[in-house]
Write a sequence for this structure.
């Protein structure tokens, strides 16, 4: 559990006066999360999540919460913020911007199977389609500029082989042509623990902290790198096919997107290796925090870098004929 900003009962009561939700009937911290403070909130009107944003600017919150409003309005399975009496998506609580978000049904599936991957792939495609006309804009906060800056900060914490791996992977990303790839609003962090299931039925997609504008295929790659791997990080063909076939039934992938998948898988592994290493080297202070292992994605990046031919054979014959 990570709690960075504690909310006292009197503060919560005053905050709830801004909403038409009635009184609080239950309030306790959520045993998950790395960057924000989250509480389960039960009110006279139902169950919600109270989120205090520890590091987001107003522009970022406007983008994220506005996107959630649009997606939910178009029947994408995601939580929308509850507007207060003034019509605002968020306001200040204990010196932090805070929002009350609809609570989605379900729990995390620890080990997704093909039937879960089908639903994730289809819902991600619906997400991409529903967000195509979204008017907000946010550059990828974990894009190429961030990778360069964080790599410089972390260089002294890398071994010689890791520095070579980072440098080679960064150069490949810098030299790749991603400008022509279809793009729009993406989730950018759709790990299996950011999806809730009611039994085997998808209940909703959560955690929009890194939602931004970037290539759709990068979003797919992030999903594949987490939902569709074996114990050592290799892609499992049945689950990969489940994701991509379900996605394409909603939004057909273009040829250049399929061809870019191997590169985007490496970009995704690089991004999460560095972000987790950064969290380990520069941990946030909270009442209780946990850091996920950066080695998982470092080793995955090594795998993806050595699997170019195998990845092309996995994607091209099945999806391009």
């Amino acid at each position: 559990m990570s709690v960075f900003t504690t909310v006292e009962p009197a503060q919560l009561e005053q905050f709830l006066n801004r909403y038409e939700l009635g009184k609080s009937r239950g309030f306790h911290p959520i045993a998950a999360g790395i960057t924000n403070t989250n509480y389960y909130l039960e009110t006279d009107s139902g169950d919600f999540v109270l989120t205090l944003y520890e590091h987001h600017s107003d522009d970022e919150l406007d983008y994220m919460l506005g996107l959630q409003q649009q997606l939910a309005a178009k029947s994408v399975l995601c939580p929308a913020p509850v507007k207060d009496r003034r019509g605002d998506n968020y306001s200040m609580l204990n010196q932090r911007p805070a929002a009350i978000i609809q609570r989605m049904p379900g729990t995390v599936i620890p080990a997704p199977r093909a039937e879960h991957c089908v639903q994730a792939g289809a819902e991600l495609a619906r997400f991409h389609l529903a967000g195509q006309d979204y008017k907000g804009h946010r550059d990828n906060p974990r894009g190429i500029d961030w990778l360069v800056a964080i790599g410089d900060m972390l260089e002294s914490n890398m071994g010689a082989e890791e520095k070579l791996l980072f440098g080679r992977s960064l150069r490949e990303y810098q030299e790749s042509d991603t400008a022509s790839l279809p793009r729009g609003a993406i989730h950018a962090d759709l790990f299996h623990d950011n999806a809730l299931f009611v039994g085997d039925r998808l209940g909703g997609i959560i955690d929009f902290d890194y939602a931004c504008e970037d290539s759709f295929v990068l979003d797919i790659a992030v999903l594949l790198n987490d939902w569709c791997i074996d114990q050592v990080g290799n892609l499992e063909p049945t689950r990969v096919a489940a994701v991509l076939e379900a996605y394409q039934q909603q939004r057909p992938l273009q040829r250049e997107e399929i061809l870019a998948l191997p590169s985007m898988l490496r970009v995704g592994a690089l991004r999460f290796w560095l972000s987790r290493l950064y969290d380990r080297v520069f941990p946030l202070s909270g009442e209780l925090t946990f850091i996920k292992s950066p080695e998982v994605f470092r080793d995955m990046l090594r795998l993806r870098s050595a699997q170019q031919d195998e990845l092309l054979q996995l994607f091209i014959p099945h999806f391009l004929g």
About this structure: DSSP finds ten helices and nine strands in the chain. The first helix runs from residue 9 to 16. Residues 114-320 form a domain with the Aminoglycoside 3'-phosphotransferase; Chain: A, domain 2 fold (CATH 3.90.1200.10). The mean pLDDT is 93.
